[in-house]
């Protein structure tokens, strides 16, 4: 009985790191110690207000975020946060077009940049080419397909993101309305 009291069991929301079409339950029971303070580079960081999640999938493995890892997420509370990202964090996005309501509600994507109602993919490729890991032709094809699937009213404020297809071993790029940004990954616990 005493051993059960010492276990730290939590029910955490799932963040998909992989194909959004792959099913994962909304939450997972996790046996993990998620401290309220972390020591980063010798400094104690208070993370008790961060949103805690568990990762399912390995599409963020190039960024050292792996399946089964617990993550701390800084939730963006307003549009200013969503529209003023100046670094290249891994973001947590709300999955808005998922018809299965029992499926996970969040996905992870690497932020590349903003797209303001522009479908000149050649120009956008040139703007972000230092961060893009596929050919210009493949990039244009991926973005054109995604852009055409986004309703006109949501095209005025998009983000460009990257994910890694761990089956095909290739980076892929997509577009998302900035309104779907939930927050950014601040820390990932070591496995």
Note down, in words, how this protein is organized.
The protein is of the alpha+beta class. The chain has helices spanning 2-6, 79-83, 121-128, 136-149, and strands at residues 9-16, 27-31, 37-40, 43-46, 51-56, 70-75, 90-94, 106-115, 158-165, 170-177, 181-188. The strands form 2 sheets. A 6-stranded mixed beta barrel has the order 1-5-6-11-7-8. A two-stranded antiparallel sheet has the order 3-4. Strand 9 (158-165) and strand 10 form a beta hairpin. The chain is globular. It starts with a helix and ends with a strand.
Keywords:
two-stranded antiparallel sheet, 191 residues, alpha+beta, disordered N terminus, 11 strands
Provide the low-confidence segments as ranges: 1-5
Distance between the termini: 26 Å
Percent strand? 35-45%
Number of helices: 4
- Based on CA atoms alone, the radius of gyration comes out at 18 Å
Order of helices and strands: HEEEEEEHEEHHEEE
Task: Let me know the number of strands.
Answer: 11
Mean pLDDT: 89
What composes the largest sheet? 6 strands, mixed, barrel
Please give the share of residues in helix.
10-25%
Structural class of the secondary elements? alpha+beta
Strand line-up across the major sheet? 1-5-6-11-7-8
Large-scale geometry = globular
């Amino acid at each position: 009985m005493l051993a059960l009291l010492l276990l730290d069991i939590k029910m955490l929301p799932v963040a998909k790191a992989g194909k959004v079409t792959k099913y994962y339950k909304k939450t997972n029971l996790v046996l993990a110690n998620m401290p309220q303070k972390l020591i980063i580079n010798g400094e104690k960081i208070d993370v008790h207000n961060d949103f805690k999640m568990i990762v399912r999938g390995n599409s963020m493995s190039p960024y050292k975020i792996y399946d089964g890892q617990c993550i701390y997420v800084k939730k963006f509370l307003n549009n200013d946060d969503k529209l003023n990202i100046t670094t290249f964090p891994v973001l947590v996005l709300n999955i808005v077009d998922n018809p299965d309501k029992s499926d996970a509600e969040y996905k992870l994507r690497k932020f590349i940049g903003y797209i303001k109602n522009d479908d000149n993919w050649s120009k956008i490729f040139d703007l972000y080419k230092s961060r893009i890991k596929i050919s210009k032709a493949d990039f244009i094809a991926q973005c054109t397909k995604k852009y055409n699937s986004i309703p006109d009213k949501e095209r005025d404020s998009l983000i460009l993101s990257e994910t890694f297809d761990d089956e095909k071993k290739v980076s892929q790029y997509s577009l998302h309305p900035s309104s779907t940004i939930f927050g950014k990954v601040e820390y990932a616990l070591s496995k």
